[in-house]
Amino acid sequence: MKDLTVFVLTHNRGQLLLETINSILAQDCSDFKFIVSDNSSNDETKQLLTENKLINKFEYRKRDKEYSSLDHFNMCLSEVETKYFILFHDDDVMLPNMISTLYEKITSGDYSAVACSAYTINASSEIIGVFGPQNLSDILIDNASSLIYQYLIGDIFPYPSYMYSKEKCKSLIFVEDAGKYSDVTWLARVAEQAPILWVSQNLMKYRMHGGQDSSAWSYIQQLKLINRMNSYVITEQQKKIYKKYRYKNIRYYAELHNHKLPLLFHYKYCENFIKINLHLIKVRIYKMEKLRQIYRKIKKILKGRK
Predict the structure, then answer these.
(1) Are 16 and 93 in contact (CB under 8 A)?
(2) Where is the Glycosyltransferase 2-like domain positioned along the sequence (predicted)?
(3) I need a surface site. Which of 196, 221, 255, 260 has the fewest CB within 10 A?
(4) Is 226 domain-assigned?
């Protein structure tokens, strides 16, 4: 397994990073390259690693300045020298067989990447749920459209669980085409290179806490993602999903905070209804007091269609 590099990308989260590092050091295999890429704004992480006698157990790279998350990802991508690689987060935890299981899967076929489902944990590392489909068999994501479909129905695998093939992903970089959700479009481009295999095993722990970038909801960023999704070819199966929700999911602001949001606003297949919804959300962003008025108008429109 010397042809694998595990990157842990960290930024000012030294205490959580310790648990992440220890979980990687406790893997049931050890013949891989382990790099901690420190993008912190200070030297506290390095000091903490030194105090805990961990800094010599992997390759430590302190960046010359604090980069944006996107630039930090691209920097690590440019430094991959092995056939396979993982870009892991500094607040998540690997189970002991994560690396060996994913490596066995990715080397068994012509995949651009493999990924796994996860347990979710809170800030105290207590298991509070699961993340990802809990299927009995693995799931093949054979193109970008299939991946986007999974995101549209909210049935996805955690982003840090992916192991990638450098050969398939060598020409790819992160671009800010979907705002803070650019990891979704990155994975879509990965799926365009070759199929992705989702391994139906919980092989890691995904931490849920207020310090996550994903915990901050932004409609403007969601609209960027939705607009980017429109560039992908949509299957007949997806059209049926959109039509299913066409008249059923007008909801108030608080109820829109869920994974089905793109189903409501994918205007390509929901026609004028989606355009009205998109307008509703834009008004919500800029003129919150108009929400109920527009909601009533949409109800009248839908009532007239039935």
Answers:
(1) no
(2) 5-124
(3) 255
(4) no
Query: Do 108 and 24 have their domain in common?
Result: yes
> Which pTM does this prediction carry?
0.73
**Pair (176, 272) in one structural domain:** no
List % helix, strand, coil for the chain (3-state, nearest 5): 45, 20, 35
Residues 6+ away with beta carbon under 8 Å from 79: 7, 35
From the number of C-beta atoms within 10 Å of its C-beta (0-12, 13-18, 19+), residue 273 rates as: buried
Same domain? 109 vs 54: yes
- pLDDT tens column, 139-196: 999 988 788 777 766 678 899 999 999 999 988 888 776 556 678 888 988 999 999 9
Give me the count of residues in the chain: 306
For 105-136, write each residue's pLDDT tens digit. Answer: 999 999 999 999 999 999 899 999 999 888 88
Q: Name 113's bridge partners.
A: 164, 196
Q: Do both 44 and 182 map to the same domain? A: yes
* Residues of the domain holding 116: 4-213
Structurally, how many domains does the chain consist of? 2
Query: Are the C-beta atoms of 186 and 174 separated by less than 8 Å?
Result: yes
Q: In this structure, what token pair is assigned to residue 255?
A: 């109820």
In this structure, what CATH number is given to the domain that contains residue 79?
Answer: 3.90.550.10
